[in-house]
C-alpha cells in the first residue's frame, strides 16, 4: 500500500491531503523522514508528527440529514455545532464529504475513507448532487428553468448546464455536478428568485429518503459500491 493511501486509510486525511502531509516532512517511516508519498508500506512503522499510526482502520461511511445551523466541518473555531458532533458515539476521525453551508439542510456524507471522499468530490469525476430550492420572487417561469438548464453567468464564470424541474410554483429541483461556493443560491439569485430554504436530497446514486433531520445511518456495501462505480464512470 502506498504511503499516502496508508495515511488516508488510517483516518489522517484524504489521499490528496495525505500526499501534501508527506511532502511537508511530517512523516517518518521506521524512524527516518520520508518525503515520497508513493513509497510502498507493508510492515514498516509509520509516524505522523512523532505519533505512531496504528495503521488502516475499518472504513465507514455515514449518511446524515444535516439540520440548519450546523457547520459542515470536523471542528469550528466559533463554537458552532458541527456535523461530526451529531455522530457522538463514533471514535474514528470522520470528515464531511460535499459540504453544505450552515443554513442548508439535507444529505451529507461523513467518512474516514479519504479515497472515497476524493472520488466523490474531485471535479473530474462530476458526481451529481440534487437540491430542492424554495425561492421567493413569485412563481418560477419556464424561461427561468431554461436558463438553469443552459447555464447561468455568475461573477466567477458561467455554470455548467444543470438539470432543473419545477416541483411547485416556488420550489425547484436542481441537479449540478460542480461544487462552487453557494452555487445553487447564487444561480437562483441571478434569476431574481432568492432562496428561502435549500435542501440537498441526493448525492450521486444515494438519496436522502426518509432519514429524519439530525439522524444518520451507515451506508451498506451495495450503496458504497454504487457510489464508487458512479464516480469512476
Provide a compact summary of the structure:
The chain has 233 residues and is an alpha+beta fold.
List the uncertain runs: none
- State the share of residues found in helices, binned by percent: 10-25%
Kindly provide the radius of gyration, computed on alpha-carbon positions and rounded to a whole number of angstroms.
Answer: 20 Å
**CATH-defined superfamily of the largest domain:** Pseudouridine synthase I, catalytic domain, N-terminal subdomain
Task: Give me the CATH architecture of the largest domain, please.
Answer: 2-Layer Sandwich
Biggest sheet descriptor? 9 strands, mixed
User: Using DSSP, what is the number of strands?
Assistant: 15
The whole-number mean of residue pLDDT values reads 92
Shape assignment:
elongated
Q: Count of helical segments?
A: 6
Structural classification: alpha+beta
**How many angstroms separate the termini?**
24 Å
* Count of the separate structural domains: 3
Remind me, CATH topology of the largest domain? Alpha-Beta Plaits
Which CATH top level class of the largest domain fits? Alpha Beta
What percent strand?
A: 25-35%
* N-to-C SSE string, H for helix and E for strand: HHEEEEEEEHEHEEEEHEEEH
Amino acid at each position: 500500500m502506498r504511503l499516502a493511501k496508508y495515511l488516508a486509510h488510517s483516518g489522517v486525511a484524504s489521499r490528496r491531503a495525505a500526499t501534501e502531509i508527506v511532502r511537508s516532512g511530517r512523516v517518518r517511516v521506521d524512524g527516518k523522514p520520508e518525503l515520497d508519498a508513493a513509497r510502498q508500506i507493508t510492515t514498516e512503522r509509520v509516524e505522523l508528527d512523532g505519533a505512531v499510526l496504528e495503521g488502516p482502520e475499518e472504513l465507514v461511511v455515514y449518511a446524515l440529514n444535516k439540520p440548519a445551523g450546523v457547520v459542515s466541518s470536523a471542528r469550528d473555531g466559533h463554537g458552532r455545532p458541527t456535523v461530526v458532533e451529531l455522530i457522538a458515539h463514533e471514535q474514528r476521525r470522520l470528515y464531511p464529504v460535499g459540504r453544505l453551508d450552515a443554513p442548508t439542510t439535507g444529505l451529507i456524507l461523513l467518512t474516514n475513507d479519504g479515497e472515497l471522499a476524493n472520488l466523490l468530490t474531485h471535479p473530474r469525476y462530476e458526481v451529481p448532487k440534487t437540491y430542492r430550492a424554495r425561492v421567493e420572487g413569485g412563481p418560477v417561469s419556464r424561461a427561468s428553468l431554461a436558463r438553469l438548464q443552459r447555464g447561468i453567468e455568475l461573477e466567477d464564470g458561467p455554470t455548467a448546464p444543470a438539470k432543473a424541474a419545477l416541483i411547485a410554483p416556488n420550489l425547484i429541483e436542481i441537479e449540478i455536478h460542480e461544487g462552487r461556493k453557494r452555487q445553487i443560491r447564487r444561480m437562483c439569485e441571478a434569476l431574481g428568485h432568492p432562496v428561502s430554504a435549500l435542501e440537498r436530497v441526493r448525492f450521486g446514486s444515494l438519496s436522502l429518503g426518509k432519514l429524519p433531520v439530525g439522524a444518520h445511518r451507515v451506508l451498506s456495501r451495495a450503496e458504497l459500491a454504487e457510489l464508487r462505480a458512479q464516480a469512476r464512470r
